[in-house]
Specification:
By secondary structure, the chain is α+β, with helices and mostly antiparallel strands. The protein is built from two helices and ten strands, in the order E-H-E-E-E-E-E-E-H-E-E-E. Strand 5 and strand 6 form a beta hairpin.
């Protein structure tokens, strides 16, 4: 079994982060203080740390015809979980940076992907493969 990863990232507003990660994404909340909140993101520990001065980085790289934001983070889901999340985000009125779609069609590494932003401007990508063996395909 793959071990969970840990990621700490800045947010401008803990209440907005709690609403987004806990409410919109459905992450279970763990420990918290008035400066940070732990969330369970599909079994991985992410921590929103309060930094009112943090500014999102506005850099992107071209990937399969889309401007992919850098940096970004997310999880590789199963295809059913990916579709369920895409539907939940769409129903919640989430603003997508890159709409849910399939990229690298017919190529090694074909994947369903979507990009969106949290209230502090942090970019997230969630993806899924019909065949998980394609995760590191060349």
């Amino acid at each position: 079994m793959t071990r969970p990863f840990h990621l700490a990232f800045p947010v401008h507003d803990l209440a907005a982060a709690r609403a987004f990660y806990g409410g919109t994404l459905g992450c279970t909340e763990g420990r918290s203080s008035d400066a940070w909140i732990d969330f369970d993101l599909y079994g991985h520990q992410i921590v929103a740390h309060l930094d009112p001065a943090a500014k999102p980085v506005a850099v992107s790289n071209a990937v399969d015809g889309h401007a992919v934001p850098v940096p970004h983070f997310g999880v590789v889901l199963t295809m059913p979980d990916w579709h369920a999340l895409a539907e939940r985000l769409t129903a919640a009125g989430t603003r997508f940076g890159i709409e849910p779609h399939t990229r690298f069609v017919g190529q090694p590494g074909e994947q369903a992907t979507m990009f969106f932003y949290d209230p502090s401007g942090n970019a997230l990508e969630f993806k899924a493969f019909a065949d998980d063996a394609m995760l590191f395909a060349q």
